[in-house]
Amino acid sequence: MHWFYDPSFDEASKAITKSETDHFKSLRIRTDEQITVTNGLGRYFVCNVLDAKTGAIEVLSKGHQEPGKVSIHLVQALAKGDRDEQAVQACVELGVKTITPWQSELSVSNWTGKESKSRQRWQEIAVSAMKQSQQAFLPEVRDVRSSRELESIGLGIVLDPRASKAISQLPKDSKEVTIVVGPEGGITSDEMDLLHSRGFTSYRLGSSVLRTSTAGPAAVASIFASLSSW
């Protein structure tokens, strides 16, 4: 069953937004087919499509997803190409709560002058990934931050292949974790010192060095598994 997103949707709704209805054709949604609509705040509704052309629907049932036992906040460095977007997509599918774009010193990509448009692009990716993974919570993509503006929510960790601590050694009672993922060129020593001074701790992901597009998702999956959130 395909999932759709409408932030204003509730049990009294008779149609979904036009932007979502426009997807009916590409997904081959037909009249009398069932779909699921979420408001991105935990609620979802199983609906019957009354008219695939207009988006008219009727609500058949409703439900609510419970938030996970562990909340993970991703700080993703801007990266060249679409590697940062790949990381955002995968981490949303895995269940992160928030995403903060990071303009690090070694980021090849630069959002200066196009912050709003770029942030909206990441939010659209988050919406698509939420629907693909059939989740009812939409992660918030926050404003881009510089190194000096980064803050930790809960336990703050920085991925560093040289760290002495393995990510499997995270405190088992952690309920909120903020993960900082650097760009392809890595995190400078000055940035690392700054993050450490702000309470972040370095952890490594095994013995290999991962791309920025895979490091975040690997860390998120590892943390969820080790803290028994899955």
UniProtKB/TrEMBL annotation:
InterPro entries: Alpha/beta_knot_MTases, RsmE, RsmE_MTase_dom, tRNA_m1G_MTases_N
Keyword match Transferase: yes
GO molecular function, one term: rRNA (uridine-N3-)-methyltransferase activity
Domain Ribosomal RNA small subunit methyltransferase E methyltransferase: 69-223
SUPFAM superfamilies for the chain: alpha/beta knot
Catalytic activity: uridine(1498) in 16S rRNA + S-adenosyl-L-methionine = N(3)-methyluridine(1498) in 16S rRNA + S-adenosyl-L-homocysteine + H(+)
Pfam families with a match to the protein in the record: Methyltrans_RNA
Chief location: cytoplasm
Coiled coil residues, start to end: none
GO BP terms in the entry: rRNA base methylation
Gene3D superfamilies: 3.40.1280.10, Hypothetical PUA domain-like, domain 1 (2.40.240.20)
E.C. number: 2.1.1.193
Keyword Translocase attached: no
Record-level GO cellular component terms: cytoplasm
Cellular localization per UniProt: Cytoplasm
Membrane spanning residue stretches: none
Keyword terms: Cytoplasm, Methyltransferase, rRNA processing, S-adenosyl-L-methionine, Transferase
UniProt family annotation: Belongs to the RNA methyltransferase RsmE family.
Chain's role: Specifically methylates the N3 position of the uracil ring of uridine 1498 (m3U1498) in 16S rRNA. Acts on the fully assembled 30S ribosomal subunit.
NCBIfam families linked to this entry: RsmE family RNA methyltransferase
Record's protein name: 16S rRNA (uracil(1498)-N(3))-methyltransferase
